[in-house]
Write a structure and sequence with these properties.
Helix content is 74%, strand content 0%. With 99 residues, it is mainly α. It is globular. The two termini are 22 Å apart.
Amino acid sequence: MGNSLNFLLQATKVLHNRNYDDSELKIIYDYLISIDNEMLNDYFNTSTILTYKNDLELYVEILKTMITIFESEEKQEYEKCGLLIKKINESIRIMETEK
């Protein structure tokens, strides 16, 4: 779980600073869509960063940022957005189920 969280934190930093190229976006995207429900549940049950209720909230925030990037005029990669939205929906179901 530690490496997974480190990756999320690094992705947040790269995306926030807008300091990324296409290969970095691909790495982040591939990682985000590879997360299975077991890991999503682990994120939900872990709270590493105090500003979030759980690490799943951080994951969803990164997904939303990636959607914004892929929806931009320069990217227009809507198929990727669809998969990212699917991951957001899976995450929301976990958050609602676990309330």
